[in-house]
Amino acid sequence: MSLRRSKQTPVKLEAAGIYGYEDIESVILASLVTADPLLLIGNCGTGKTFLLNSPSEALGLEHRHYNASLISFDDLVGFPFPAAEGSRIEYLQTPATVWGAESVLIDEISRCKPEHQNRLFSLVQERRVQGIKLDKLIYRWAAMNPCGLEQNGDSYEGSEPLDQALADRFAFVVEVPDWDEMSDKTHRAIACADEQTERPGFSSALRSQLESWRTAYSCMTARPDDRTVDYCLIVANELGRAGFRISPRRVRQLVKNIAALLAVRGNRREEKSFEMALTWSLPQRAWGVQISEHVIRSAHRTAWDSASLSGKQKWLNEFHLERRFPAKINRLVTGCPDPDTGTLAVTQLLANESKERAALFAYAVYPAALAGALNIGSEGVSDLGKAATAVIDVDWELKWKESQADANGRNRDWVRLQKLLDPMSGKRRERAAQLYNYLYINDMSPDDPVAVEEELNECVTYLSSLGL
């Protein structure tokens, strides 16, 4: 299904007197499409509160604005009193209570008292208070100052990292721009802005566009396309390998966020929409962990390139994305398109991996390849044989190396490797000894030789499970 950009006049935040947000404007509008929680992080005076109060006014919503550092439970629900029949508790409502709200802004959420976090958690995630569903509530927004010390030395006393479970409930977690990130034109517009001016044009345009955006968004999320799903799965794996966990909930949210941005920006599968969705869907910044721009871009590039491929090239790319050798072997055994592609995968692996890892892989799979169990051609089998033979034929070289070690004192690396063999027995010990001998002969000293042997054993165990 092809969804085109609306021919209506584009909605611009500037029309609502909101300046300096051009780079993240699409994300803010996308959050209105999904109606999922939005968190803004920024320095004081950057317009976070004004920005988040504006959509409720434009859409004519019943709005509540709470300061999390000052809020009490009674502020949210009202004063409790027993119902007339005495069987339940009712709450005395005021204009400030949350019951009739359609949108809620929780300001200074990082200054929230710990005892109130659970209540805000259910409000943000479930639209509930005291287990009672808030039927009218649509939008949940929050704002906070950065937690911890900023790179420029600024810090905000009392602004604490959010609980990770709470932070993960926000669909978009967006850092807003500060003065030095804005253009001269924007500086002038801010200096002359009149926050009290009514802007009916913005309101009508936003209402109209939201309807068409939501239609497009519903179509895309009803059956997410393979390209979007593949992108999100690869991104999650790449960031995980870089040391940044992405929860299953976050992966699903990223699929939705991409769809919302494509609906707002036009469904042209723009690479920029994917990258923007990824950048502002990561919740780590809310608990004080910064993922570098380089890491995000690298994960995006890998995922985008892979998701854009098809057929044999797609399989080959996925083979190389697998970090663990047992997973690579599984792909060779169960999904390799043809022997030529399998050969290309193997030769590229042997060329690109470190010498020790290439030797490990070849040593593990060569017997299965020689038996024809792997979907690779004769050239691939030959390349594996050359690399494996270097490990298999290492014994005679070892005697010469040992004689040198005896003359110069026992080699510490050799002693360390040999001690690792003590708990092992049988075939596993023989394989490990052969590999460790090879590493020693070639002056290789892996940081974690235990992990090296464990991966070798996993490869052999997997192949054995297939009867190989």
CATH superfamily of the largest domain: P-loop containing nucleotide triphosphate hydrolases
- Count of strand segments: 9
In DSSP terms (H or I, runs of 4 or more residues), the helix count works out at 20
CATH class of the largest domain: Alpha Beta
Task: Return the CATH architecture of the largest domain.
Answer: 3-Layer(aba) Sandwich
Which series of helices and strands comes N to C? HEHEHEEEHEEEHEHHHHHHHHHHHHHHH
Provide the structure class. Answer: alpha/beta
Strand order of the largest sheet: 2-5-8-1-9
CA-atom Rg in angstroms: 29 Å
**Major sheet attributes:** 5 strands, parallel
In CATH, the topology of the largest domain is named Rossmann fold
Which residue ranges are poorly predicted, with pLDDT under 50 across at least 5 consecutive positions? none
